Amino acid sequence: MHPLRQHIEELVHLTDTEFDVVLSHFEQVKKRKHQYIVQEGDFVNREYWVIKGCLKSCFFDDNGKEHILQFGMENWWITDYESFIKKTPSKIAIDCLEDCDLLYISYENREKLTAQMHKMERFWAKKSKYGRIALQKRILSLLKNSAKERYNLLLEEYPKLFQRVPKKLIAAYLGVSRETLSRLSS
Q1: Is 158 inside any structural domain?
Q2: What is the maximum span of the chain, computed from C-alpha positions, in angstroms?
Q3: Which of 180 and 112 is assigned the larger pLDDT?
Q4: Spatial separation of the C-alpha atoms in residues 54 and 123, rounded to whole Å
Q5: List of E strands, 13-89
Q6: Domain presence at residue 92
Q7: What is the mean pLDDT of residues 153-176?
Q8: Which superkingdom is the protein from (predicted)?
Q9: Is the residue at 134 inside a domain?
């Protein structure tokens, strides 16, 4: 079974014909490690689904400090959603931490697909709900948990991330220095 179909069918069932229609709205792209799929200032017209690889979504503050908003690994969706939906310049960058195999759908194709196939409208509605839940959990964790608790939660939820992502990026995601992360992991 195609990995995208398997992913979609975790939430909605598709016939073979329906999946063929869905897949026809996507394009596949391969990116090398350190290539950007979104740069700050871009107008983003693609939402990406990760077949293989790992990416990071980040921004740099006025002091040049990197802040990681999200990692994207297999079966995850990633883009600058504000730019994608509102057609504004991107405030973030997304780059490949590994060689990546991605599927993407343009904003227009996504709108067309959801208009013609209510199952996909339900799929993206459910994915949005789960995304909001994940974002709420992340914000609450940043606000109420200690650095050690945030580290342990990340390790518990995504143990493979620690084998794939440099420690300095884990630190930027957790909002701590590299030195603090070293103390937390010992």
Answers
A1: no
A2: 53
A3: 112
A4: 23
A5: 26-31, 36-38, 46-52, 55-60, 66-72, 77-78
A6: yes
A7: 91
A8: Bacteria
A9: no
